[in-house]
Specification:
Radius of gyration of chain A: 21 Å
Strand order of the largest sheet of chain A: 1-5
Low-confidence stretches of chain B: 116-121
Largest sheet of chain B: 5 strands, antiparallel
Distance between the termini of chain A: 49 Å
Oligomer: heterodimer
Shape of chain A: globular
CATH superfamily of the largest domain in chain B: Multidrug efflux transporter AcrB transmembrane domain
Radius of gyration of chain B: 32 Å
Structural class of chain A: mainly alpha
Helix content of chain A: 55-70%
CATH class of the largest domain in chain B: Mainly Alpha
Largest interface: A-B, 71 and 91 residues
Order of helices and strands of chain A: HEHHEEEEHHHHHHEEHHHHH
Number of strands of chain B: 10
Low-confidence stretches of chain A: 1-43, 80-90
């Protein structure tokens, strides 16, 4: 009579967060973002479309007004204004003018992942136990802290910049060069990662077209700029000289990747068109993050 | 002919006795096959589309069978080491029960403190209390208000927790049921072929013994669970809930009612018989005849595999009383005849008795059968089965009391009979004179009285709540009410949404639009006070949002999660809420039966309306489950009540016409009975007793029994009329009717009313209502039959002849 429920969602969330982690962050202004169906059915979007767009809606039923927050959204790129006005409405829009180039890079990456990185990641996971990998990840995160600090300062997020500073000082000392994270566990100071892309987003710099980077995978023009620029000013450069610094940076990336190798393989197999799948997932994730980042800031103000 | 039959019965007494002896022996061999089936679905109408659709939905989403064991600490905090120790101890014990597949509690579910735990790649299954030994304080923050576990493993106030005991399916049975549903589903599109009917029959036969074993197992398991739970009695209150628990309680209560009230009624009957007749023989013979009737009937039900359900459980009491009624009339006449002419020998007395009473007794049982027979036309399967069962019981009663009883009686030596109580005869004398002198006044007063009572009919309402079947002070009620209020309600209601399968994008398992539509519906459902636990895929996406720093997932992330989990886990998690294959989403709702002032029809109507308001077109949503099935029955109760009563009136009118061969007399005979039925319905309305599948049977049964009195009275009255001339016609008729026949009517009414009143002591509310209302109906019938009926007869039948 009573139906049963199960409990394993956490597993879902785990993988989810990993996926989020792999997209570098960033771009177009949230105001311009819109949903597929909204474009389809404008001018008056339904409640479902509003929820798809990330908006909280109020519905009136026999029991009064009920406020509903979305738990799953589908926010895609806004079209250029003139195009939206003139062109026939298409179902979904993903800003990907360089698709044929992107597809080639995507294919290249796939070969690279399949034959080099994934086997290597498996070896790495085999050799270094989970605790060890966690410590290595912590250390790389700590080295990044000054970069986060600068970006947060540049974006005017002083509270978060303060957190970055405290975390760097605490974790570098008490946390034994960042291997541990006492800032979070003892002082309750959470991480506030901020990339150049985030900062650019803060100043309303659009993400630009989708771009698949060799090795690094899905990104966009703004993200690519951010990655390159951060490569130059990354604190690791202050600790070591090239080529060791490149090596370390690559290892940082590899360490990140190792956690997701299985995920990547699995999704690649499941998708009808893996290129589209990874692209759409990346773009929707970016737009969602931007929209909610924007909303959270509005709420703060 | 009557004469011949009477003589034949006396002369063929040995043949009759031997035949009945053989039949009785056969019946006894079948007794062991007699079964009680009190599962909730015996209350359902099974051959309609709604039921089949519910079965199909159950196949698609296959929810698991489970029982909740709630734990409410009495002296310590819920989140404390004491609680954790108890839960662990209980879980270990429960796990030892054979069929238990899983025991889930707040100790065994993964609990996530924050995102950081996840990013480090920890195995989520290690995030349980068992692995982490979280402190009571930590547990409180993690568990209280959890989007998935609230209403299931912890109540909203976080004052009690529950252990979910999941049971293993019986694979063979599941397969058989899947087959049965598959064939039945074709009934939705048209008739089944003969071959399919046969196959269905075959499958049901195969499923039968498995189900029987299973219900025995369940009974055992519930006892075991109760035993285990009792180990923490000094520290905590425990409550068992779940559909099979309710079913088990129903079976227990019906079984004990059958025994308790069957024997209590027999005792009361014996006592009353002894007081009335002051002779042992008039206690033993009628009781023996009653017992034989009941044994026959149970044997025959066993042989025919007719199962006693919640509704028909009263048949034993009913049959005891109805058999007795016939015999009291026979005994009354026999005693009168014996007193009138003491020289008659035993055989002559019986022939004389039969001559006088065979016809009215036959017609009386016939009309009672009509009352029950009308239930067959109620259109509600459980009530129809009850109608059939009572029809069989009445035929047996007729045979036993009119053939066997006189045959046995003829073996007795004639004796001197005691006289009747003087105060009763004096009271009848007063009534006789009153109805003779003031027929119009009496008629008007009675019609006025019953008319006023009948206005209560406008107040009749229909409701059905399982919990209200049990008396409030019983342990069963308390357990069910606790689970109902604290752990998300009782009666399941499923909302099935069809998601449109769009071809333009096959990459996604579920689109954001699907989930958001689902969420709007779920929010609308949740807004109702009466909805307890409401679960669907949304509860999972809500948790995901909570863990994702309060940001929603994208539709791609959702699909990714879906693919990353292995098929087994997906099935386990959301298999009962989402079917990718059928493009269906299910919201599982439990309706809180104890919600004060819940109007179920209104609730369902509003719910349907609201689902459309939030954007789901009517053809894309289907409401199924027990709640809908019960409501469907309730919605038909009024119609069914009118139909059965209409049939009873018409058929009884025809029978009366056939008996008395006069339209006038038939109409007059109907009046007191119609008043009685309307009066009892009015009373149900005034007392605000909801009309449900049990109470709906009362009016027709009351009429069937009440009309007996009318027939006996009329018969005696008309016989008396023949003896009078001119102005004495009415007087003679009255004397005859108020003579031993009147006494017999009074006696039967007293015994029936007293017998049925005993049900007032039952813990099973439908029985209480049924017993007390039937008793009231009997008294009403008596009142109309000794006031209105003679008044009308004196006025319209006896008078004109004298003029």
């Amino acid at each position: 009579m009573i139906s049963s429920t199960h409990f394993g969602l956490p597993i879902l969330c785990l993988s989810l967060l990993l996926l989020n982690g792999c997209s570098s962050s960033a771009p177009p202004s949230p105001a311009k973002a819109s949903t597929a169906s909204e474009q389809q059915q404008s001018p008056s979007p339904s409640k479902v479309d509003e929820l798809n767009a990330g908006k909280t809606v109020t519905v009136e039923t026999s029991q009064g007004n009920i406020e509903v927050q979305p738990t799953v959204v589908a926010i895609t790129d806004a079209k250029a204004q003139n195009e939206a006005q003139s062109g026939a409405p298409t179902a979904v829009f993903y800003n990907d003018p360089w698709e044929s180039f992107n597809r080639q890079v995507f294919e290249l990456n796939h070969q690279l992942y399949s034959y080099v990185l994934i086997p290597a990641a498996e070896g790495y996971r085999y050799l270094i136990p989970a605790v060890g990998r966690e410590k290595i990840g912590n250390a790389f995160d700590n080295i990044r802290e000054p970069l986060n600090l600068l970006n947060n300062l540049a974006a005017g997020e002083f509270a978060e910049a303060g957190a970055n500073l405290s975390r760097f000082l605490i974790n570098s000392t008490v946390g034994l060069f960042g291997l541990f994270d006492p800032a979070t566990h003892w002082f309750d100071i959470g991480a506030h990662k901020q990339t150049i892309a985030d900062t650019l987003f803060h100043y309303d710099i659009a993400s630009g077209p989708y771009l698949v980077l060799p090795f690094l995978g899905p990104s966009d023009s703004r993200g690519a700029f951010s990655t390159v620029a951060e490569g130059i000013i990354h604190p690791i450069n202050q600790l070591t000289d090239s080529p060791e610094s490149y090596f370390l940076r690559a290892f940082d990336g590899f360490d990140d990747f190792s956690g997701q190798a299985a995920t990547y393989e699995n999704l690649y197999k499941q998708a009808d068109d893996p290129y589209l799948y990874f692209r759409n997932q990346f773009i929707q994730g970016q737009r969602r993050d931007e929209y909610f980042h924007f909303k959270e800031q509005q709420n703060e103000e | 002919m009557k004469n011949k039959l009477a003589h034949w019965i006396v002369s063929a007494r040995w043949l009759i006795i031997i035949t009945f002896g053989i039949l009785l022996a056969l019946a006894v061999t079948q007794l062991s096959k007699f079964k009680i089936d009190a599962s909730a679905d015996t209350l359902l109408v099974k051959d309609n589309a709604l039921y089949i659709k519910s079965q199909v939905a159950a196949q698609v989403f296959s929810p698991e069978e489970f029982i909740l064991l709630a734990y409410e600490p009495t002296g310590h905090e819920l989140f404390s080491e004491q609680t954790f120790n108890d839960l662990q101890m209980l879980s270990t014990e429960i796990n030892k029960i054979d069929r238990v597949k899983a025991v889930t509690s707040i100790l065994t579910v993964p609990l996530i403190r924050d995102k950081s735990v996840l990013t480090s790649g920890t195995d989520v299954n290690a995030l349980t209390w068992q692995a982490k030994q979280y402190s009571p304080d930590q547990m409180e923050t993690l568990v209280a208000g959890h989007p998935i576990f609230t209403d299931l493993l912890v109540n909203k106030q976080a004052s009690a927790t529950a252990i979910q005991v999941v049971f293993e399916d019986n694979e063979t049975l599941s397969k058989l049921e899947a087959e049965i549903t598959r064939i039945q589903a074709q009934m939705l599109d048209g008739e089944l072929s003969v071959a399919q009917e046969k196959e269905l029959e075959q499958l049901k036969k195969q499923a039968e013994p498995i189900k029987a074993t299973l219900s025995k197992l369940r009974q055992n398991e519930i006892h075991q669970l109760n035993d285990i739970a009792s180990q923490v009695d000094e520290r905590a209150n425990t409550y068992l809930g779940g559909s099979y628990v309710v079913g088990q309680h129903l079976i227990d209560i019906i079984q004990s009612d059958l025994k308790t009230f069957g024997s209590a009624i027999a005792g009361v009957i014996a006592l009353l018989l002894f007081i009335l007749y002051r002779t042992i023989r008039w206690v033993i013979f009628p009781l023996a005849a009653c017992a034989i009737s009941v044994v026959f009937t149970m044997g025959l039900f066993g042989f025919l595999d007719l199962r006693t359900t919640v509704i028909s459980a009263n048949f034993v009491a009913l049959q005891l009383i109805l058999t007795l009624a016939v015999m009291i009339h026979l005994i009354g006449a026999y005693r009168q005849i014996s007193r009138d002419d003491e020289s008659l020998d035993g055989h002559k007395r019986i022939v004389a008795t039969l001559k006088e009473k065979l016809a009215p007794c036959f017609f009386a049982t016939l009309t009672t059968s009509v009352g029950f027979g009308a239930l067959i036309f109620s259109g509600l399967q459980p009530v129809m089965v009850f109608g059939y069962m009572m029809l069989i019981a009445m035929i047996i009663t007729m045979l036993v009391s009119l053939l066997l009883f006189p045959a046995v009686l003829s073996l007795l030596r004639a004796r001197k009979e005691t006289t009747e109580f003087a105060f009763v005869t004096r009271f009848f004398e007063v009534m006789r004179k009153l109805t003779l002198k003031h027929p119009i006044t009496i008629s008007l007063v009675m019609v006025g009285l019953f008319g006023a009572l009948a206005t209560g009919i406008s107040r009749l309402n229909v409701e059905n709540s399982f919990i209200d079947y049990f008396a409030q002070e019983t342990r069963v009620y308390k357990e069910l009410a606790f689970i109902d209020q604290q752990f998300g309600g009782s009666t399941p209601l499923d909302i099935i949404l069809k998601t449109e399968s769009e071809t333009d994008n096959n990459q996604l398992v579920l689109k954001a639009g699907n989930v958001n539509q689902l969420q709007l519906v779920q929010a609308a459902v949740n807004a109702f006070e009466a909805t307890g636990s409401v679960t669907s895929v949304v509860n999972f996406t809500q948790l995901a949002r909570q863990l994702n720093d309060d940001r929603p997932l994208t539709e791609y992330e959702l699909t990714t999660i879906y693919h990353l989990l292995d098929e087994k886990v997906v099935n386990q998690l959301i298999g009962s809420y989402f079917s990718a294959e059928n493009n269906q989403l299910r919201i599982s709702v439990r309706v809180q039966d104890t919600t004060a002032g819940l109007d179920r029809a209104d609730f369902l109507e509003n719910l349907k309306q609201d689902i459309q308001t939030v954007g789901v077109e009517a053809q894309n949503v289907e409401l199924t489950g027990l709640f809908v099935l019960y409501q469907d029955i309730l919605s038909r109760l009024f119609d069914s009540q009118i139909k059965t009563l209409g049939i009873v009136y018409v058929v009884l009118g025809l029978v009366l016409l056939a008996i008395f061969r006069s339209v006038k007399i038939a109409l007059i005979a109907l009046v007191p009975n119609i008043l009685t039925t309307l009066g009892i319905l009015g009373m149900i309305g005034w007392l605000a007793i909801p009309l449900d599948i049990m109470t709906i049977t009362i009016a027709a049964i009351a009429m069937g029994i009440a009309v007996d009195d009318t027939i006996h009275f009329l018969h005696a009255y008309l016989t008396g009329m023949k003896n009078g001339e001119g102005r004495t016609v009415a007087e003679k008729a009255g004397r005859s009717a108020f003579g031993h026949t009147g006494l017999a009517i009074l006696f039967t009414t007293t015994i029936i009313a007293a017998g049925f009143s005993l049900f007032g002591f039952s813990d099973f509310i439908p029985s209480v209502n049924f017993g007390l209302l039937t008793a009231t109906a009997m008294v009403m019938a008596l009142i109309t039959d000794i006031t209105l009926l003679p008044a009308l007869l004196n006025k319209f039948v006896a008078k004109p002849k004298s003029a």
